[in-house]
């Protein structure tokens, strides 16, 4: 079952296909936090793959923090606990070599432009998928499921990246995806913060749905910076010049 509509993806290897199909099922809530994945034998049968290919795919998903592999028990969708602290920056600097502001800059380079491109390129099926991620986040706020909220947030941003219809952009985003889990865990741990994220996603969705590329880019820009402010992260004012509003507007003319 294809979890993302639109043109069929072209996978280079069977490992890549296994990774993306299972990752999509996790993002969209088909496999929920805490769920046990099918056994290696069943995955081999489903994908027509060797055991080595399945194990490599599971290793990649584990490195992305989407699953946890437990020796003798199997593989489980990550079920996130509440963060130990509400202060992101000290925690980040203690556990990551990449400076947080470097990650923030990369997101500001990539995601507003991706949202702008999605507004001009998204198809009806992908737009419906994007709308479903809003309902998914809202449902998990009501159920008070932190893991569900995290994967709903991942699904929203992933759907936008894919809707930009640029395979290189998807590859670049995959490179930073593992680092975004801790950020999302801290940003979505409370219902209040999650409600702010849902509101921001709604504004981005509306801009994309109406084909307003400049508004989509600005809404994503504001969403990322608002999160940074909520996490009490101060950012270099020079970042304010990163968003290419004029470039987006020229592209629409």
From TrEMBL:
<dbReference type="Pfam" id="PF00392">
    <property type="entry name" value="GntR"/>
</dbReference>
<keyword id="KW-0238">DNA-binding</keyword>
<dbReference type="GO" id="GO:0003677">
    <property type="term" value="F:DNA binding"/>
</dbReference>
<protein>
    <submittedName>
        <fullName>FadR family transcriptional regulator</fullName>
    </submittedName>
</protein>
<feature type="domain" description="HTH gntR-type">
    <location>
        <begin position="12"/>
        <end position="80"/>
    </location>
</feature>
<keyword id="KW-0805">Transcription regulation</keyword>
<dbReference type="GO" id="GO:0003700">
    <property type="term" value="F:DNA-binding transcription factor activity"/>
</dbReference>
<keyword id="KW-0804">Transcription</keyword>
<feature type="coiled-coil region">
    <location>
        <begin position="120"/>
        <end position="147"/>
    </location>
</feature>
<dbReference type="InterPro" id="IPR036388">
    <property type="entry name" value="WH-like_DNA-bd_sf"/>
</dbReference>
<keyword id="KW-0175">Coiled coil</keyword>
<dbReference type="InterPro" id="IPR008920">
    <property type="entry name" value="TF_FadR/GntR_C"/>
</dbReference>
<dbReference type="InterPro" id="IPR036390">
    <property type="entry name" value="WH_DNA-bd_sf"/>
</dbReference>
<dbReference type="InterPro" id="IPR011711">
    <property type="entry name" value="GntR_C"/>
</dbReference>
<dbReference type="Pfam" id="PF07729">
    <property type="entry name" value="FCD"/>
</dbReference>
<dbReference type="InterPro" id="IPR000524">
    <property type="entry name" value="Tscrpt_reg_HTH_GntR"/>
</dbReference>
């Amino acid at each position: 079952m294809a979890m993302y509509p639109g043109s069929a993806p072209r996978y280079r290897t069977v490992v890549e296909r296994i990774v993306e199909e299972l990752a999509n099922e996790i993002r969209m809530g088909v496999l929920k936090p805490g769920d046990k994945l099918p056994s290696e034998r069943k995955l081999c049968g489903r994908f027509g793959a060797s055991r080595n290919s399945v194990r490599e795919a599971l290793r990649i998903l584990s490195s992305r923090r989407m699953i946890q592999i437990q020796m003798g028990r199997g593989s489980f969708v990550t079920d996130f606990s509440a963060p130990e602290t509400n202060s992101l920056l000290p925690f980040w600097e203690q556990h990551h070599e990449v400076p947080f502001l470097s990650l923030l800059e990369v997101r500001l380079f990539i995601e507003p432009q991706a949202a702008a491109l999605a507004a001009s390129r998204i198809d009806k099926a992908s737009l419906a998928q994007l709308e479903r991620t809003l309902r998914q986040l809202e449902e998990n706020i009501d159920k008070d499921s932190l893991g569900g909220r995290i994967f709903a947030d991942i699904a929203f941003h992933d759907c936008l990246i894919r809707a930009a219809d640029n395979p290189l952009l998807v590859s670049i985003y995959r490179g930073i995806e593992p680092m975004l889990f801790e950020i999302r865990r801290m940003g979505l741990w409370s219902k209040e913060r999650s409600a702010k994220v849902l509101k921001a996603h709604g504004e981005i969705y509306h801009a994309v749905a109406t084909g307003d590329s400049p508004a989509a880019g600005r809404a994503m820009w504001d969403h990322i910076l608002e999160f940074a402010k909520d996490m009490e992260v101060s950012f270099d004012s020079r970042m304010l010049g990163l968003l290419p509003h004029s470039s987006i507007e020229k592209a629409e003319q």
